[in-house]
Structure formats: structure tokens, C-alpha cells
Amino acid sequence: MISKPTPLAAARCGQLLLLAGALAAVSWPARAQSSAQTSAKTSAKTSAQATAQSVAEEIIKLDAAQQRRAGVQTVAAAAPGPDGGAGGQQLSGTVVAAPEGTAVLSSIVGGVVQQVHVSPLQEVRAGTAVVTLFSQQLVEWQRDYLQLATQATLAQRKLTRDEALFADGVIARSRLEESRAAATQASVMASERRQALRAAGMGQAQLARLLEKQAMSPALTLTAGAAGTLLELPLAPGQRVEAGVPLARIAKSGALWLELQATPQLAAQLRVGDAVQVAGCGAARVQALSPQLSAGNQSVLVRARVERADGCLKLNQYVQATVAAKPAGGVLLPSSALVRRGAASYVFVQRGAGFAAVPVTTTPAGADAMWVQGTLPAGSQVAVRGVAAIKGAWLGLGAEGGK
């Protein structure tokens, strides 16, 4: 026998049901919101990873058959050698005498030109007679030297006698000291005039003959101090020259420089020490870059020292030279490897069964080569033929032109 619920029990059951419903209504939205947030975070993280991977490297899928039909060929990105590797920029310029390779011939005495023994642009050797002067001042210096040399000899003889007398106790020490001072002073004065005559151009043999025979001569022959080419000799017989005025300029043999003109863009790539190859002959190395532009043609002066001339470079010769300029960290590639997308430049680097579009910056390295900078290590295989087909696949136009 089943008893019927009392009215009080029924009322309590109804209240319990209403409370459970309310609790369910409150907890369900919270659980739904938490689940939605977790799903959104996971989706956002996945999307960010995919976007980062896409920005880092875009892979264009091309299997071996597609590459063969499209005529795709690759080359290895070349690392720069010690002198810049292959390629280079063509510069023009002239051959000039090196600053330290120029010798100036002058006289420390004035006079009149008696004879010119050589002519401009003539090759001379060390000791070759260049010009003979008639100098009255030279005669006066010779006279002074003879007088001072004679006084020095007499003072030395007197010193020798006084030393003997002092040793015998005949004279006092003070007299000996006076003789020593006089002998030293006379010797110094004679030596000073002797050095002046040597500087004027008189040789050791001429000075010895002057002391022996007292034969003074106004003729002074100036000789070349080094072997080289006589660049300037603005003298004529009968011309009067002053003391210290340059009489001739000699370019020493083998001391040559190149003065080349470079654009500001190319000059920014050059460094001191870069190799320079002269077309046809000779090699040089960059020694200096002008910090300012030439007012005439807005170019930068590049000065290079000639290290090997092979006997074919002459002063004032017009030359064409190749400078192996390279930016730091770059690799060398043919110009056909470069593709553009908008304002950006790319190369296609092989990645397994496809290619990656790698963003790069480039600098010209010759007629058909370029220096490339980017995440592109030396040795990477880069497409140089069939690049249009790879770009078409990259842009979604098909993997190859004929497909």
C-alpha cells in the first residue's frame, strides 16, 4: 500500500527543483564562456605561428619534373675572396707620380745656369748630371772654408804643443784649457762650412782637392739623387736662379699611383686595401678615398698605389681599372637571380622539393653580377634560370609557363 505525499512534502520537493534549475542556469554560461576563450586562444596562437612562418619564408612547391620542364637551373652563392672575388666596378683615371716617389732638385746657393745636361721626360740614374751653375757665392763659401780649415789646423797644433808643455810642468792648466777650447771652436766652424759645401753639391773628392790645391771654382754641377723620370726642368742657359728654388722634379722609378673617379654610391662600398686591376697590365691597391666630391663632376677621388706595373704604365697615362668592391657580409650571384615583388627584391633559394623566396638587398658587382645581402649563406643553391616560372607559381599563376 502506497501512501500519498502530504501537502508539506510536495511543497518542499517543488522548492528543491526550482533551486536546482537556477543553479544550472547560472553555471552553464560560465562553462560555455570558459570553453570559448580557451578555443579562441588556441586558434590565435596557431594563426600567429602560421603567420610568422609565412613571413619568415615562403615555400614555392615545384617537384623535379616541374623544374625540368620549366628549365630551372641553380648556382651556388659565392663567398667573396680575399680580393673581392669575381666581378668588379669599372673606373677610369690617370697614372700619377706617388707623393713619396717625387724628388726635387735645388741648390742652396744662387747662380747663373751655364749648361743643362738633360731634357724633360728623360730617364736619369742616380748621380746623373742635370745642370751646371756659375755661382760667386760658392766661391765665397770655399774661401771661408779654406780659412777656417787652416785656423783649425793651427789650433790643433797649438793644442798639441801645450799638452806637451803641461806634461813637463812648464805651463799652467788654465792655458791648456784655453788651447783646447780654441781648437774645438775652430774645428766646429770649419766642419760647419764643410757641411754647407757638401749640401751645395760638392763631393768628397772635390773638397779634398780644394784643401790640397786651394783651387776654388765657381762651377757647381747638380746631380740626380735617385733614378727615375725627369718631370720638370724649367731652365735655360743664362737664366739666373735664386738659392733654394726648385730646379727640377724627378719621379722615382716604380713609384706610381692611380687617381680614379668613382660615383658616391660606389665609393661608399670601397675600403682601403681593396684590390684594383688595371685593364691590360698592372695591379694596385686602394690607399685613400677623398672625403669630398669633385666640384666639376661630383665624383669621389680614389687613390691607389701601383704594386705591379709590368712595365706598361706611364706617367699621365689614361687607364681603365676594375675595383673589386663588395659590401660586408655579401655573397656573389648572377644578376639573373634577382626578382622583384613591389618595391622588395628576392632570390629563390632551393629548399628540398621547392624554393623559398628570400628577401635581399643588392649592390652591383659588374656587368652581369651583384653582391647580395640577406639570410643567404655562401653555398646556398639559388635559381638563375626558370626564375619566371617560379615567380608565376609564387604569385598563384601556375607552376610553369606551359602547364
UniProtKB/TrEMBL annotation:
InterPro entries: MFP_Cation_Efflux. It comes from the Bacteria. Coiled coil: none annotated. GO terms for biological process: copper ion export; plasma membrane copper ion transport. GO terms for molecular function: transition metal ion binding. SUPFAM superfamilies: HlyD-like secretion proteins. Keywords: Signal, Transport. One of its GO terms (cellular component) is outer membrane-bounded periplasmic space. Residues 1-32 form the signal peptide. This is Efflux RND transporter periplasmic adaptor subunit.
